Amino acid sequence: MVSGQKKPFDQDAYFSRKKREKWRAWFFISLGGLVLLDSYSPFPVPIVGAPSFFLGSVLLYYGYQQFKNYSKLPMYEALQLGRSLKRELTRTDVFLTFQLTPEKTDLLLDELIKNGFIEPVGTELTPESDMRYRVIS
Questions:
Q1: Checking phi first, is residue 73 left (phi over 0); if not, alpha (psi -120 to 50) or beta?
Q2: pTM above threshold 0.70
Q3: Residue 47 pLDDT exceeds 90
Q4: What secondary structure does DSSP assign to 81-108, as a single string?
Q5: Can you tell me whether residue 132 is helix, strand or coil?
Q6: Where does residue 86 fall: left (phi above 0), alpha (psi -120 to 50 degrees), or beta otherwise?
Q7: Helix, strand, coil % (nearest 5) of the chain?
Q8: In this structure, is the dihedral angle defined by the CA atoms of residues 101, 105, 110 and 116, taken in order, positive or negative?
Q9: Tens-place pLDDT, residues 111-125
Q10: Architecture of domain 75-135
Q11: Distance between CA atoms of 29 and 56, rounded to whole angstroms?
């Protein structure tokens, strides 16, 4: 890879990573909940009392952190997509590529504008055209 060349956006890798984060989050939340529920019973997990409560709490916390990572807006990935699309982005590109809801798409674009990563190109639009954004950084 040449030092000035940017790596193109890989949609399959993005969705694969998101699927793993979601699976991990629900697995550890479920496991932590089971350990906490079973903390005063010797069956099926023979960990009882304070160690069980601590282990269950740690598993729940880790699952919650994974869920927060899964729920984060894909800001870096949107910038990477914009760079691979000749430094231009549209709302439709973001919406279709990341399969976000319209509200999350608008929130992501607003965050990118607020942080100075993108800027609107034109404001005079016909109803059937889509707002274009230029990637600054």
A1: beta
A2: yes
A3: no
A4: HHHHTTTEEEHHHHHHHHT--HHHHHHH
A5: strand
A6: left
A7: 60, 5, 35
A8: positive
A9: 999 999 998 887 666
A10: Orthogonal Bundle (1.10)
A11: 9
